[in-house]
Design a protein that fits this description.
The protein is about 35% helix and about 25% strand. It is α+β, with helices and mostly antiparallel strands. The protein folds into 3 domains: about 5-100, 3-Layer(aba) Sandwich (Rossmann fold), CATH 3.40.50.20; about 130-200, ATP-grasp fold, A domain (Dna Ligase, domain 1); about 205-455, D-amino Acid Aminotransferase, Chain A, domain 1. The strands form 6 sheets. The protein has an 8-stranded antiparallel beta sheet, sandwiched between helices. Strands 3-2-1-4-5 form a 5-stranded parallel beta sheet, sandwiched between helices. A 3-stranded antiparallel beta sheet has the order 7-6-8. The mean pLDDT is about 95. Bound molecules: adenosine-5'-diphosphate (2 copies) and magnesium ion.
């Protein structure tokens, strides 16, 4: 039985994993860089260890982290998302050192982390993939030839890409020639690999992904889909489950594809199969994420299944405690990624001290965050500072509840994406559940909201509140 887990991460996802440990009477070990000494995951875990002065390097040092897991008596390690979560080396080192890695095998992580390999495996399994190149490009001449074959527009993509980076749409050969080197160098810098490939650009697609769970006994189930079409620069902003844009027949088709995909690669633990749906309602496999996803909360809300708890049970060798037909969904859920960014200023990151913070509450509202009043958001990590997930029995109620929950939330001291989301909630096509990945681009006017109270006044209120609470 797993008794103690090292959490190789920080921020809200580390807190989320601690919570799952607490509910299962499992001890948790946090790691933190100097700058994070007072972070919430450090306070909440049963033990915490400093991993050095560099804000990032310690979280990326697989050998050192696994040493720490062994030395602190852990029997398992949870990688969260980002950092080393999709690094096959970490899974491999864990295995060698007798630490159970809460995720799939190193081989599966390696295969699926390479988008070309992943496409190949899916084609072999009979899952439709986005038309594209079947090997990384040897050079710009080959790119031009492949693109001419596929037809413009095309997407240039980093083979080992992630987090929405290393992706560039090219509408013509001129653009392909212009962007080729740029994507190559971005891939090299961000992912340490200069491999890139080409895909057909699907016009105005919906991003639909399926959550799967697979145990070590060979059982694979899917927990329905999430619609992550509301994105900015290929990064998700709002995620919804189930998708308001699918019929039950389409839902079952895509669910079957995802299960087939997982079975084909011998997948274990939680994973996500991402698809694009084109304007003719055809699905195309895009990639598989071999880890817990930021937006797992919406799936938890509609199914009642604690995905992190299941991840731990699976890593522990336990069989899934439910069958596919026992997984029921109820209502709709929507997650908002609250980023410390200024929507009015091209979403410029807005790091700094949170002078006042109120979490939303009430029926159907869940908050996942690591911020608190007085916490300073460090500039070294990504700008997502909270996730607000709202659940309701039906779509109309969900929209009202989402607006209420966002109004309920108070994050002062930094700019956030909350006012932007309140504008999104007013847009007719969004309210009608009809949108695609161009939504944000198609609605540039949404950043012209009025700030309800002047910033100066808020700063004064915050200062007064902090003064009144000094010493507590
Ligand atoms: P999700 O699919 O779970 O929504 P994102 O794509 O938003 O995940 O990524 C979650 C976090 O992980 C972000 O901080 C992102 O920058 C980081 N990330 C994801 N994939 C990679 C990768 N291949 N390399 C580096 N960072 C990544
Ligand atoms: P990452 O690994 O960074 O998450 P993905 O391959 O999942 O990269 O793509 C991220 C986003 O980029 C998608 O959600 C979609 O909006 C857009 N995208 C990727 N490939 C295509 C494509 N072939 N056609 C249209 N949009 C695409
Ligand atoms: Mg993706």
């Amino acid at each position: 039985m797993i008794k103690k887990i090292l959490i190789a991460n920080r921020g809200e996802i580390a807190v989320r994993i601690v919570r799952a440990c607490q509910e299962s009477n499992i001890e948790s070990v946090a790691i933190y860089a100097d700058a994070e000494r007072h972070a919430l995951h450090v306070k909440k875990a049963t033990e915490a260890y400093n991993i050095g002065p560099d804000p990032v390097a310690g979280y990326l040092n697989a050998h050192r982290i696994v040493n720490l897991a062994v030395a602190s008596g852990c029997d398992a390690l949870h990688p969260g998302y980002g950092f080393l979560s999709e690094n096959p080396e970490l899974a491999h080192i864990c295995k060698r050192r007798g630490i159970r890695f809460i995720g799939p095998s190193a081989d599966v992580i390696r295969n699926m982390g390479n988008k070309i390999e992943a496409r190949r495996s899916m084609q072999a399994a009979g899952v439709p993939v986005v038309p594209g190149s079947d090997a990384s490009l040897a050079g710009v001449a080959e790119a031009v030839a492949v693109a001419a074959n596929i037809g413009y527009p095309v997407m240039l993509k980093a083979t080992s890409g992630g987090g929405g980076r290393g992706i560039r749409r090219c509408n013509s050969e001129t653009e392909l020639l212009r962007y080729y080197e740029r994507v190559l160098s971005e891939a090299r810098k961000a992912f340490g690999s200069a491999e890139i490939f080409l895909e057909k650009c699907i016009e105005r697609p919906r991003h639909i992904e399926v959550q799967i769970l697979a145990d070590q006994q060979g059982n694979v189930v899917q927990l329905f889909e999430r619609d992550c079409s509301i994105q900015r620069r290929h990064q998700k902003l709002i995620e919804i489950a189930p998708s308001p844009q699918l019929t039950d027949a389409q839902r079952s088709t895509i669910g079957d594809y995802a299960v087939r995909a997982a079975q084909a690669v011998g997948y274990q633990n939680a994973g996500t199969v991402e698809f694009l749906m084109d304007e003719n309602q055809q699905f195309y496999f895009m990639e598989m994420n071999t880890r817990l996803q930021v937006e797992h909360t919406v799936t938890e809300s509609i199914t009642g299944i604690d995905i992190v708890r299941e991840q731990i049970r699976i890593a522990d060798g336990q069989a899934l405690s439910f069958k596919q037909d026992e997984i029921k969904r109820r209502g709709f859920a929507m997650q908002f990624r609250i980023n410390a960014e200024d929507p009015k200023n091209d979403f410029l990151p807005s790091f700094g001290r949170i002078t006042r913070y109120f979490a939303p509450g009430g029926p159907g509202v869940r908050t996942d965050t690591a911020i608190f009043t007085g916490y300073a958001i460090p500039p070294y990590y990504d700008s997502m500072c909270a996730k607000i997930t709202v659940w309701a029995l039906d779509w109309e109620q969900l929209l009202s509840r989402a607006r209420r929950a966002l109004h309920d939330t108070g994050v002062y001291g930094v700019k956030t994406t909350i006012p932007y989301y309140l504008e999104v909630l007013k847009v007719d096509s969004f309210r009608a559940g009809r949108f695609n990945t161009s939504f944000v681009e198609d609605h540039p006017e949404l950043v012209n909201y009025k700030t309800s109270r002047p910033a100066r006044e808020l700063a004064a209120v915050a200062a007064a509140v902090i003064a009144a609470h000094a010493g507590y």
